[in-house]
Amino acid sequence: MNDQLVLLAFKKACEIREAETLIAENYNKGYIRCPVHLSIGQELVPSILFSFHDVNDFAISTHRSHAHYLGKGGSLQRFFDELHGLPSGCSGGKGGSMHLIDESVGFMGSTAIVGNSIPVGVGLAEAQKLSKSKNLTYIFLGDGATEEGVFYESINYAYVRKLPCLFIVENNEYSVYTPLKPRQSCLKLENKAKAFNAHYSQNLLHEYKSLFNAWSDAIKYVKSNAGPALIEVFTNRKLAHCGPEIDDNLGYRPQKFLSKWEKYNILDIYYKSLLEAGYSKKYLEDLISEIRQNCTNIYFKSEKKHIILRGLNES
Ligand SMILES: Cc1ncc(C[n+]2csc(CCOP(=O)(O)OP(=O)(O)O)c2C)c(N)n1
Ligand SMILES: [Mg+2]
């Protein structure tokens, strides 16, 4: 991964963090009426997705899909408009946070029912294969979704039909408040993926370079007609499962777990690497300010449109 690609990934990660922070900061005004599952802390996967940007690849995602939509290159304005229920939103303002789509960049949709978009992704990959496309389909899911029967049916079918599917599992170790152990008899996703002959790799502590390499290998693998690949990325969501709050006071995640992830903030990791690569602190700080300003302008444009459309008074 050369320095330009690291810079690109850093910029995307900053844009996603900023967009999510704006939503969190403004949510309680009540202008966004849909529930939001924010992915602050989980920007590694979508930023690496962006470094492999190809609008002809497809992607599908879950209830926590903002970052995947943006990482696939989805329009930021239409995203904020969607959250504000506007007709100019990416789903016409009728879907909200959990039903994002931007077909122009291959982001083919996200849905609220855990596991339910997985077979849709497999179907998209089958269509690619049948039409002799050279592209692939990304299927984004969480650790909880690997407990749905359809995950196993889908990965099996993808192998049997040798479909170009790349499953990316963001394992934040929680399904709402429940950790992995009381949920799963076999904790190793590696064993489960390999049982279905999927090519497997994992990323433990936000090592972005090794994720980039694993991602590149997985793309080559699925494009070689060998069947699906699965990358498991351990990560951490910083906020509550749903909504803009920090809920660490509830105590469902051990302090040791939270402190561990404090050390692996992906924005800090990228920043440090870019400094080491010779980019100046001023250059990086200016870049962050520019991204912040741009996101802020776009966000408040949506908010304003919402206020006008609904005839509300500004709070
Ligand atoms: C079929 C189904 N069961 C339960 C729910 C309620 N639910 C919404 S998100 C979620 C947790 C999913 O966990 P995971 O797949 O690990 O994703 P994360 O929220 O950690 O990103 C649950 C149980 C649902 N939406 N759909
Ligand atoms: Mg999870």
Structure described in brief:
By secondary structure, this protein is α/β, with parallel strands linked by helices. The protein has helices spanning 3-26, 44-51, 66-71, 76-83, 118-130, 149-160, 189-195, 208-223, 255-262, 266-276, 281-310; strands at residues 58-61, 107-110, 137-142, 165-171, 174-175, 178-179, 199-203, 229-234.
Blueprint (SSEs and pairs):
Blueprint lengths: L2 H24 L17 H8 L6 E4 L4 H6 L4 H8 L23 E4 L7 H13 L6 E6 L6 H12 L4 E7 L2 E2 L2 E2 L9 H7 L3 E5 L4 H16 L5 E6 L20 H8 L3 H11 L4 H30 L5
Parallel strand pairs: 1-2, 1-3, 3-4, 4-8, 7-8
Antiparallel strand pairs: 5-6
Helix pairs in contact: 1-2, 1-10, 1-11, 2-8, 4-11, 5-6
Give a written overview of the molecule:
The protein is an alpha/beta fold. The chain has a single domain (3-306), classed as 3-Layer(aba) Sandwich (Rossmann fold). It is built from 11 helices and 8 strands. The protein has helices spanning 3-26, 44-51, 66-71, 76-83, 118-130, 149-160, 189-195, 208-223, 255-262, 266-276, 281-310; strands at 58-61, 107-110, 137-142, 165-171, 174-175, 178-179, 199-203, 229-234. The strands form 2 sheets. Strands 2-1-3-4-8-7 form a 6-stranded parallel beta sheet, sandwiched between helices. The chain is globular and about 55 Å long. The N and C termini lie far apart (46 Å).
